[in-house]
Design goal:
single chain, mainly beta, Outer membrane phospholipase (ompla), Chain C, 12-stranded antiparallel beta barrel, two-stranded antiparallel sheet, 3 helices, about 15% helix, globular, disordered N terminus
Length: about 375
Amino acid sequence: MKKICVALGVLFMAIASAFADDNELVKTATSISTKSSGEISTDSIYWTFPGSVGLNINQAYFSPYCMEGAGSSVSMDAFLNLNANYKKNRVKWDNSFAAKYGLIYSNEFEGDEIRKNIDEFGLYSKFGYKMAQYWYASALASLESQFTSSYSYEEEPYKNSDSTRISSFFAPGYAKISLGFDYVPNKYISLFVSPLTTRFTFCRLNELASNYGMDTISGDKYREIDGKKELVQPAEYKKVRSELGAYGILRSDFDITQNIHFFSSLEAFYAYNKAISKYTHEYTKWHGQQDYKDKDFNPETYHNSHPGQDIKKFVHGWYYKWKLELLMKLTKHINVSFKTQLKYDNAEMKTIEGENCGLPFADVQFWESTSLGITYQF
């Protein structure tokens, strides 16, 4: 009898242990199922690192006002997109790095040269704390520039040289720091608005500073020889210009179908502290007016006296950029993409032959690109 009781006791303990193990298995399976379904656990840290890298062959068109290029042509470009996104409880932190570099060929070029087609990189970081169902209090920072120098081929010398250079690494460069609110109704769309944004414009090369609205430290210095003025020292410019204003960006990123991906962004900045370009001075001198200081300048009076000139093109303060990208997957690694961009920044100026008395001015910049390429996503 005693042996029977001992045997029953051992059997009971084994059954209890088995049930306990089954409960642990159920808990483990439930945990794995919850994580794989995309639900966010409150006691776990979630980092995701999506990205893509690829090579495209493009047909492209650039309007004459684009700082990135001009004309229609065939080109090739490489791109890299890296992301590091964090989400836990009420905290959401998105980080990204995007870079593009391309070369362009056209038989219309002098000497059949290969030229740079597109060149840009950008860092982006947005940190948010959830306040309501769809609203985050957020801080945003971004940095944009290009890798190498760009040149103008509209006049001699056609070869790449300092005399035809129009932009370079951090000439210009742009940085933004924003405090505001982020509206995120779902994972496909977000709207960030900030009434308090500082935008910095950098230009490390003095000879290019006038193209990007940099403030002057000292003007051109001349000396008179035989009744003629000769430039002995060009104007000196500050390397950094800051603007305080309002900023907003609307992003949409989702799959239309299993094989078609859609991305769009619209961003705008308006400066509270508008700056008047030095070219307003040159316009006044052009029309035989007396020289003046910025504080004495009245854009409305000037515009009324010169109705053919749009002085608003010379008052910094507005920036907007719209991007649209459609990506269609043909196979796992081969895609067809359509990209277009519309940009206006009246701190960026370009000289167009035969317009505005030969002086640089701001206008809308536009480019479109249709490409066939190879993309690896991770």
